[in-house]
Amino acid sequence: MLLTSSQMRVYLALGNTDMRKAINGLSILVQESMELDPFSGHLFVFCNRKRNILKILYWDRNGFCLWSKRLEKHFFRWPESSEDVMKIDQRELMWLVDGLEINQQKAHKRLSYSLLF
After folding, report:
1. Where are the domains of the chain?
2. Cβ within 8 Å of residue 94, ≥6 positions away
3. Cα within 13 Å of Cα(34), Cβ side
4. What is d(CA 80, CA 49) in angstroms, rounded to the nearest whole number?
5. What is the pLDDT, as a whole number, of residue 44?
């Protein structure tokens, strides 16, 4: 699907998006509505009203890439929120694409340690 790195962030454009928009229209939404930089290399995820289409926009070195998935029978578990933008991690994006909730109750939580000298 997508090449990811540890520096790459994932932003959901909450609510619904007109899926007739292509690269130009979605990049304008990222810049103006989400107030983020479409050239950052981060992933910007959009969903339609029926929740059966996802589009992911990202900049890859010398051009924009647009990834799309349309479900034939089911729908995506798109989060509801009063916010306009939600930041998620790459694992949560994979859950979303697979039709799962992004907040998995039984998932292992991320651990982080620091070295003490």
Report:
1. 10-97
2. none
3. 25
4. 12
5. 97
